[in-house]
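Narrative of accomplishments. A recurring question from our advisory board has been how the design workflow behaves on a single, concrete structure rather than in aggregate. To address it, we present the structure tokens for one chain from the evaluation set, followed by the sequence designed for it. No filtering or post-editing was applied between the two.
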């Protein structure tokens, strides 16, 4: 009998507006066999604003800047208990699906997600 396939890890990507950085990161995981990804923003005008539900769903939370960690901890301390938050240190200077942004995301994520490059459709 084959070993059960591990369930996909659930990744949440956070930036300010959820229009460029976090949305691009989410798209990198479309149809990935090992990971499911969602994205949200911290600002009131975000395309999708982060909620306690997003944080409850996620196994790992990736933020683009330290300020996003600070905002999440201030607003969602209880929901973040026991959650890993990883700062990718990606500045807000890229457009959606920018090739340089995608390369930077792949580089920064590879050290945290061992199955990312092997199962990536990109």
């Amino acid at each position: 009998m084959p070993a059960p396939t591990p369930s996909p890890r659930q990744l949440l990507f956070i930036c300010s507006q959820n229009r460029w950085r976090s949305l691009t990161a989410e798209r990198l995981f479309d149809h990935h066999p090992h990971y499911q990804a969602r994205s949200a923003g911290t600002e009131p005008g975000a395309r999708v604003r982060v909620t306690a539900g997003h944080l409850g769903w996620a196994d790992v939370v990736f933020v683009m800047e330290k300020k996003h960690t600070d905002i999440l901890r201030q607003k969602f301390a209880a929901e973040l208990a026991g959650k890993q938050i990883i700062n990718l240190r990606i500045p807000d200077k890229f457009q959606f699906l920018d090739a340089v942004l995608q390369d930077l995301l792949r580089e920064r994520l590879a050290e945290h997600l061992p199955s990312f490059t092997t199962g990536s459709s990109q």
